[in-house]
Design brief:
about 150 residues, about 40% helix, six-stranded mixed beta sheet, single chain, 6 strands, alpha+beta, Nuclear Transport Factor 2, Chain: A
Length: about 150
């Protein structure tokens, strides 16, 4: 009798685990977007203009937490100016939802940077909302907004 109960409990436990993990797993399309988001994070850290240019759409609207909004040209110029360097940058609690040709991406940005001129360090703690759009078969960042936490 005891063995029979065990045979029932094990599959139920396994199903419960699979269901829990499935909630955190990305679909195939979300996984593609996730890779683009990670490439963007790395390009930001490295101030890689070529990579940032490739990852962003021509109509980019990039909004900062203090209210400044940049188009693609201004974003690329400022993100790769060399006026500061990123010491660390994490995108935590990433969530991605693909709706047709658009992906809604949210995460918690935790970063530390250093000004080149005076060595002053600063920390950022933000909530980020990104909109990615499939353009000619490739996911491009269309907009980004941030809120200080």
């Amino acid at each position: 009798m005891r063995t029979r109960s065990l045979y029932l409990i094990i599959p139920m436990f396994a199903l419960g685990l699979l269901t829990s993990f499935a909630a955190y797993a990305f679909s195939a399309e979300e996984a593609v977007v996730s890779k683009r988001v990670e490439a963007f994070r790395i390009a930001q850290m490295e101030q890689d203009r070529k990579a940032l240019d490739e990852l962003t759409g021509a109509d980019l609207s990039y909004s900062h937490s203090e209210g400044r909004v940049e188009d693609k040209a201004a974003f690329l110029a400022n993100a790769t100016s060399g006026k500061s360097r990123t010491l660390s940058l994490q995108y935590k609690d990433l969530s991605i939802r693909v709706v047709g040709e658009v992906a809604i991406v949210r995460f918690h940005w935790i970063g530390e940077s250093e000004a080149i001129a005076d060595g002053k360090k600063s920390s950022t703690n933000l909530h980020i909302l990104m909109t990615w759009q499939r353009q000619a078969g490739t996911w491009k960042l269309l907009s980004r907004g941030s809120t200080k936490l």
